[in-house]
Amino acid sequence: MDLSYSPEAEAFRSQIRAWLEENLPPGWFDEGFELGAEERERFTESWSRKLYEGGWICASWPVEYGGKGLTTMENVVLAEEFARAGAPMRADFFGDTLVGPTILQWGTEEQKRTFLPQILRGQIAWCQGFSEPEAGSDLASLKTRAVRDGNEWVINGQKVWTTRAHRADYIFLLVRTDPDAAPHAGISYLLVPMDQPGVERRPIIQPDGTGEFSEVFFTDARCPADNVVGGVNNGWNVAMTTLGFERGVSATTSYRRFETEIRNIVAKARNTGAIQDPVVRQRIMRAHTRVEIMRINGLRSLSATVQGKKDPGVAALGATNKVFWSEHHQDVMNLAMDVWGMDSQIVEPDPDLPSWPGVLRMEKRPGYDVSAMQAAFFFSRSESIWGGSNQIQRNIIGERVLGLPKEPKALRPN
Fold it and tell me: What's residue 338's pLDDT?
C-alpha cells in the first residue's frame, strides 16, 4: 500500500473544511452539540439546498453534467472531510450512487440530459427493481417480462424487497426481453415511472414497524422504448456495473460508522458497568480490530485504484468486504444488545443515544417505538442478504479468486 495526498488534494481539503465551517449550524463542532427536533428538521430541509449550491452533490461527475469533475483523490478527500465533520452527504443513495453513475457510463446522451440534472437537483427519487421471489441471489433467473409495443415497453411481473418503493418516482428495473436467450443474455435494464396504472406497491412491515421495503407488482405497466440503458438484452452487464457502485463506494470512509458504533457501545458499557466484564472488553477489542482491518483494506483498494495497479488481492475485495463488514455488523449489534442488557428488550427511545450511525427511520409502528440501537440491530439482520447474499459472495471468492470448482447446481423438478 503506497498512498499519498498531493499538495493539490490537501489544498482542496482546506477548501472543503472552510465551506463546512461556514455552512454548518453555529456550535456544530463544539463538544456535546446536539440539534433539537425542530432544528434538525430545519437543518435537513436546508442542507440539501446548500450542498447543491456548493456543488458537492455528485461532485465527481463531469462538469458538463453538473458535477465538479473531481479526481479520485479529490473525491476521497471530500468524503473524508464530510465524515470528519459529521456532516451528512445527501441521502439519495439510489440516485447519486447507483443509477446516476450507471447512466453516466451506459446511458445515451438523451438519457443523461434528461435524468442526471433531475438527480442532482433532487427532483426525482429512485428505487431498485432487481430481486424477485424466486430470483434473489440467483438474479439471472428473473421472470419479470417486458414486451415491445410500438414506442413503449409493456411490463408484467413482480419485484420484492424493493427499498423506498413507496417514495420513488422511478425504478431502475431488470426485465427479461428475450425469453429464448440464455439466462444472462436476455435481460434489459429499464427506467420505469412508478406513478402510473399497472404499478402496485405493497409495503413489507418489519418487526420495528418500519416499511422501507415493498413488493412491487407490474400489470401491463409501460415505459418509453428509449428508456433502455446500455442496449436491449445487455442488462446483465449494466446491472453488474450498478452492483459494483453499490459495493465499492467510500473506500476510506465506510468504516467510520462502525467506529462510531463501537464508541457508542463503550460509552454505554461504562454507564452500565458492563465494561468491567473481561469478556465484554475482549469482544469490544475484537470489534475494534475488525474496523481497523476495514480501514486498511479501504486504503489498499484506493491505493491500487489511484496507481492503476492490478493487485490480485484487491480483485477479491468487493466480495470479501461485503462478507466481512456485514457479518461484523451482526456480531457487533449482538454485542450492543448484551451491553444494554435487559434494557435492550424494552421498547422505548434511549435518551443517551437518540441516533445511531447508518440508521434511517422512516415510519414507526404506533406503540412500538424502538430505540435507534434496536432499529440498527433489526436492520443488521438483512445486511448479509442484500447486495448479493454472503453465500453467493463466498461462491464468487472461491470460483473467481481461489479457482475452485463451481458449486454443483441443484436439479429442479419438472
Answer: 95
